[in-house]
Write a structure and sequence with these properties.
The protein has 126 residues and is mainly β. It is 0% helix and 50% strand.
């Protein structure tokens, strides 16, 4: 079992920045891939980015590439999502997720992730 708790969401103006954090507990954190997804009202939950166990492999959705950065601290059991140059279309509930079946390979598919946090709202005003 893995428990995930996100924090750091809020309201920001377009062009601003936010940093989301996700605290994990349960299984050994350094043994699995962590990902971030988001879901806007009326839309499917979509992949944002993910990071391998040691941070050496990352993957991002095209829509956030160059603006968002994922990092992790295995000593603190946390994964973060730094979001810069935010746009109104980034407005969504953001979820962190754990893919406990993989350690090295980052998979941008929702079904690959077994555990999810409760989500944190990010709202970007124009």
């Amino acid at each position: 079992q893995v428990q995930l708790v996100e924090s750091g969401g809020g309201l920001v103006q377009a062009g601003g920045s936010l940093r989301l954090s996700c605290a994990a507990s349960g299984r050994t954190f350094s043994n699995y891939v962590m990902g971030w997804f988001r879901q806007a009202p009326g839309k499917e939950r979509e992949f944002v980015g993910a990071i391998s166990w040691n941070g050496e492999d990352t993957s991002y959705a095209d829509s956030v590439k160059g603006r968002f950065t994922i990092s992790r601290d295995n000593a603190e059991n946390t994964v973060s999502l730094q979001m810069n140059s935010l746009k109104p279309e980034d407005t969504a509930v953001y979820y962190c997720a754990a893919d406990i079946s993989r350690r090295w390979v980052v998979v941008p598919t929702r079904s690959a992730y077994e555990y999810w946090g409760q989500g944190t709202q990010v709202t970007v005003s124009s």
